[in-house]
């Protein structure tokens, strides 16, 4: 039975990390560090639970379940639900929101600082066209994704990031213990960090990238389902460890920078200020390479995942290459709407999908305790969907909420559902649904044995 060598496992883990770790994964922890100050360790602990733990569980769920991808997990609820949820998740973290955001974040944080003058929209169009041309080039070669991302792009990204982080940590602007926390981090650093990690939405990516990881492992000659599952989990674990280390280093860098720089309004601005302080004009170039590489490898991973997933969902439909081309074109068009528009409308969709993904992961991991009975999945997902819809509607832009006249409904849900003000209004209904499902499963088993 063929098993991955340690070196191969490291390369697969590097590929997975490369797909996970986009520019947003840098922006969130550096901003958190600046605001948390001396509470950075408590904030980081919460951040790691949701920013690293949940994505790892997503990859583990795919490995342990021995499913080939998200569609297989979703069909545990029902065939129609599996197709709808898989399409919605891939389109959301794919061409509708996440992939276009890769181009706009690369331009806004990494490139815009290198140019001056008018013509921002034109520059964005030119940059995003070149960005997606490169993404398409690599995406049309899915069999080489481990080589390009795991062996080339990710090491290059880590090398440039190391230059910035090591320089900042070796000459800190302040001592972490002397930096006063600001905002919500002053009183509830752990829970604020927990929500910050929740907002990375990497648990969705963990489910989406699983199909690529499984495919790469099989291309390396591993065929036995048990060994494919084990290799997937091991690669996910190595990737999670690397993510956790970088999150901690970047968060500390952010906290130290608050000793000499003003707390920035967002992580992109904070990174720009830190890079400029330590490297001057060259700092903008270093940051441009870091951010562009981070976004490029994530976009390639997402296009590849979406293409392979839609071939699996619609086996008689377009080929993988046609899906890849269509997704790149759609992503290019949406990217030119601008970063603000993408973020404004992605948040409500993610607030709805994320709880469904979390509950699906948990039920898959513990499925052996109720024989993966569909009743439990349906009750748990059903209760979660209703409450998550309220969270999603509440996250809509104010103008859209007013147009739809839904404030009365969302306000009522906010008063009824505990933790709604924290973005976790779905949690108690999800637990209730799972409990009801388990009770019904046991009653059914009892009737069958009588």
From TrEMBL:
Keywords: Amino-acid transport, Cell membrane, Membrane, Transmembrane, Transmembrane helix, Transport. It is a multi-pass membrane protein. It comes from the Bacteria. The chain crosses the membrane at residues 9-28, 40-60, 81-99, 119-140, 152-170, 203-221, 233-258, 278-303, 323-345, 351-370, 377-396, 423-441. Its main location: membrane. The keyword Nucleotide-binding does not apply. Pfam families: Branch_AA_trans. It is found in: Cell membrane. PANTHER family: BRANCHED-CHAIN AMINO ACID PERMEASE BRNQ (PTHR30588:SF0), BRANCHED-CHAIN AMINO ACID TRANSPORT SYSTEM 2 CARRIER PROTEIN (PTHR30588). Belongs to the branched chain amino acid transporter family. Component of the transport system for branched-chain amino acids. This is Branched-chain amino acid transport system carrier protein. The lineage of its organism: Bacteria, Bacillati, Bacillota, Clostridia, Lachnospirales. The gene is brnQ.
């Amino acid at each position: 039975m063929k098993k991955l060598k340690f070196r191969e496992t490291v390369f697969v883990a590097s590929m997975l990390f490369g797909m996970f770790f986009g520019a947003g994964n840098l922006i969130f922890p550096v901003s958190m560090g600046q605001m948390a100050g001396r509470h950075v360790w408590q904030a980081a602990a919460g951040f790691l639970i949701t920013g690293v733990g949940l994505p790892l569980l997503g990859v583990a769920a795919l490995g342990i379940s021995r499913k080939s991808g998200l569609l297989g997990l979703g069909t545990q609820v029902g065939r129609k639900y599996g197709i709808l949820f898989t399409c919605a998740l891939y389109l959301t973290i794919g061409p509708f929101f996440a992939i276009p955001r890769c181009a706009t974040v690369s331009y806004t944080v990494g490139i815009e600082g290198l140019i001056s003058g008018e013509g921002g929209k034109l520059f964005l169009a030119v940059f995003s066209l070149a960005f997606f041309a490169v993404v398409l080039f690599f995406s049309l070669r899915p069999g080489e994704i481990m080589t390009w991302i795991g062996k080339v792009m990710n090491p290059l990204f880590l090398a440039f990031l190391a230059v910035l982080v090591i320089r900042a940590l070796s000459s800190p602007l302040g001592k972490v213990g002397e930096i006063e926390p600001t905002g919500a981090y002053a009183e509830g650093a752990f829970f604020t960090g927990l929500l910050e990690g929740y907002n990375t939405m990497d648990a969705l990516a963990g489910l989406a990238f699983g199909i690529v990881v499984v495919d790469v492992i099989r291309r390396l000659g591993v065929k036995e389902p048990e060994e494919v599952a084990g290799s997937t989990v091991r690669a996910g674990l190595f990737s999670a460890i690397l993510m956790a280390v970088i999150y901690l280093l970047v968060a500390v860098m952010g906290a130290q920078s608050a000793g000499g720089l003003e707390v920035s309004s967002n992580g992109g601005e904070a990174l720009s200020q830190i890079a400029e302080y330590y490297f001057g004009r060259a700092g903008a170039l270093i940051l441009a390479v870091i951010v562009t590489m981070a976004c490029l490898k994530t976009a390639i991973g997402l296009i590849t995942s979406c293409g392979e997933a839609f071939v699996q969902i619609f086996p008689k439909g377009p080929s993988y290459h046609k899906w890849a081309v269509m997704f790149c074109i759609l992503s290019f068009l949406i990217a030119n709407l601008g970063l603000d528009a993408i973020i404004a409308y992605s948040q409500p969709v993610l607030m709805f999908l994320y709880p469904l993904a979390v509950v699906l992961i948990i039920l898959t991991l513990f499925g052996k305790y109720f024989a993966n009975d569909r009743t439990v999945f349906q009750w748990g997902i059903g209760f979660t969907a209703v409450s998550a819809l309220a969270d999603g509607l509440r996250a809509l832009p104010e103008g859209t909420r007013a147009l739809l006249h839904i404030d009365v409904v969302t306000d009522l849900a906010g008063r009824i559902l505990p933790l709604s003000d924290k973005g976790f209004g779905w949690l108690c209904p999800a637990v209730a649904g799972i409990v009801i499902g388990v009770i019904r499963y046991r009653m059914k088993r009892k009737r069958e044995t009588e």
